[in-house]
Design a protein that fits this description.
The protein is mainly α and 506 residues long. The protein is 50% helix and 5% strand. The structure holds flavin-adenine dinucleotide.
């Protein structure tokens, strides 16, 4: 009996799964997940991703059991697995979602497509986000997104399963894949059931905190939806989240606080795909400046000491260091604090976004290459189409952690520092340091650079580059390719600054 392979990747659910539904219409299916050592050896991958993945795979397997099937988890490189499977038991088609992953998965998918062509296997990929493959123009992208999210959700079809033709070894541990241990003390739990519970809790209650609550690192952990890892691993479909949000918006009475929160949340779900589309349309933005006019700006000046201080939460700027510790302990940070970390890295510490981005990608459980690399470049100022966003960590602390609760939670060494010195402890007079028992340089680090002067110098360097005629000349082309069309372009003011404003909302 011939059959169809459904290759699960970052779509770890049965509900609203186009590839599974299509394959199951044509006959028995083999539900395959391949743990690829080559992927896990990439510098953006980490044990915390793997832990979330394993819980999500277990949950997917449990779902399949309810339909009388098992998830077939195989360790190996994809082409080897396909070859072996085909040799044992030829199959008719290979079905998967369209993945906008990192450079490694992009190359692997091309190799898989070639393999299928050579073996006469039908290779079918299905979109799972509002991201358009081989997009010709951004002009009608918003309409395409709307169409995607409005389509009916596909329910789980009747399934007949095919097992693997060989007994598979146990699922490898993170250590067996060479991933250094990276425990999180407060992890988000993977899997669809957990994701649905988070969605339900957000829509029914926490959405009321969204507006006004998502910027402060104190309120953000409960005010934000916390759906990012479930979207990144596909435990929930984007479409079902959008539709559930719209249904809740329609059901809530006017004036309900949650309505504003849900409207703001909806725009983030749109941005989700807007940013992934950038990587889909230009895969090299993971490695190269989106605007090549910014090449050689930070590339030749790598400062390892600055990077080590940042990664270790030892910059001496309390809010920055507290964010690094929280990220290490939980695998998550809110948008504003992520942007602030990158801003500090890119401006006063003058670090290139690529190395910083690899470190952060490993830290974020919700690592989504399309959002991540587009945001890294946007915050570092190398897209050419965004206004420079520089977040001053002292001002951010004053605005979003005015009483120092967040900083003191994650940096116990600062607990005895008086409020008035908390955000700039290096300015504490010696007698205050002695009195509170916190000596700068001994108990807490001294910042490596003068924040204001270093930021000023960095901005000047970036702006000088931005003003070069050859750099300005490239901007329109980048806007045409990647810029949001959500707001109409006003013809008269097509200067780079206005173009940047266009992108500001996105
Ligand atoms: C440097 C940097 C790197 C980032 N890397 C990632 C990443 O790897 N994965 C990731 O999911 N998000 C990333 N973000 C975007 C954002 O910070 C996270 O999506 C958000 O903090 C996740 O928490 P949440 O699900 O509670 O967000 P919510 O505010 O509840 O948003 C809901 C969903 O909308 C999407 N979203 C929210 N904000 C943005 C945004 N600014 N751009 C694009 N999509 C957005 C996400 O899918 C998110 O899950 C990054 C932001 C920055 C500044």
């Amino acid at each position: 009996m011939s059959y169809h392979v459904v290759w699960f990747k970052r779509d770890l659910r049965l509900h609203d799964h186009a590839a599974l539904a299509a394959a199951a219409q044509h006959g028995p299916v083999l539900c395959l997940y391949v743990i690829e050592p080559g992927l896990w050896a990439q510098p953006d991958m980490s044990a915390r991703h793997y832990d979330f993945l394993l819980t999500s795979l277990r949950a997917l397997d449990a779902e399949l059991v309810q339909h009388g099937l098992r998830l077939q988890v195989v360790r190996g490189e994809m082409l080897d697995v396909l070859e072996r499977l085909f040799a044992h038991k030829p199959f008719i088609s290979l079905n998967a979602h369209e993945e906008t992953g990192n450079g490694w998965t992009f190359a692997r998918d091309r190799a898989v497509a070639r393999w299928c062509r050579e073996r006469g296997v039908q290779w079918q990929e299905y979109p799972q986000f509002g991201v358009v493959r081989r997009l010709k123009s951004r002009d009608h992208w918003q309409a395409a997104w709307e169409t995607h999210v409005a389509e009916a959700q596909v329910s789980v079809p009747p399934l007949t399963g095919i097992p693997l033709p060989w007994p598979e070894r146990r699922v490898p541990t993170a250590a067996a894949l060479g991933l250094p241990a990276d425990p999180i003390s407060r992890p988000q739990v993977g899997g669809r059931t957990a994701g649905l519970a988070v969605l339900d809790e957000f829509l029914s209650a926490r959405a009321g905190q969204y507006r006004g609550g998502i910027s402060s690192p104190l309120s953000a952990p409960t005010a934000c939806s916390r759906l990012s890892p479930y979207l990144a691993y596909g435990c929930l479909s984007l479409r079902e989240i959008v539709q559930a949000t719209r249904a809740q918006l329609a059901a809530l009475p006017a004036g309900d606080r949650r309505r504003k929160g849900l409207s703001a949340f909806m725009s983030r779900l749109y941005w989700h795909c807007h940013f992934i589309q950038k990587l889909e349309s230009q895969p090299d933005l993971e490695f190269l400046n989106l605007h090549r006019g910014y090449d050689d700006l930070r590339e030749d000046e790598w400062n390892e000491a600055h990077f080590t201080a940042l990664r270790c939460g030892q910059t001496g700027w309390p809010l920055v260091d507290a964010c690094v510790v929280m990220l290490r302990e939980t695998g998550w940070l809110n948008f504003r604090m992520r942007a602030m970390l990158v801003s500090v890295a890119a401006y006063p510490l003058w670090l290139h976004w690529r190395e910083v981005g690899l470190w952060l990608a490993q830290q974020f459980v919700d690592y989504e290459p399309g959002i991540h690399w587009s945001q890294m470049q946007m915050q570092a100022g190398t897209t050419g189409i965004n206004t420079t966003r520089v977040y001053n960590p002292i001002k951010q602390a004053q605005d979003h952690d005015p009483h120092g609760h967040f900083v003191r939670t994650w940096l116990p060494a600062l607990r005895r520092v008086p409020d008035s010195w908390l955000f700039e402890p290096w300015r504490m007079p010696a007698y205050v340091q002695a009195r509170c028992g916190v000596i700068v340089g001994r108990d807490i680090p001294l910042p490596m650079v003068d924040l204001e002067a270093a930021t000023r110098e960095a901005k000047a360097g970036l702006h000088a580059r931005r003003a070069r005629p050859d750099v300005r000349a490239e901007v329109a082309g980048i806007v045409a390719r990647h810029g949001s069309r959500q707001r109409p372009l006003r013809r008269k003011s097509r200067s780079p600054a206005t173009v940047s404003q266009l992108e500001l909302g996105l």
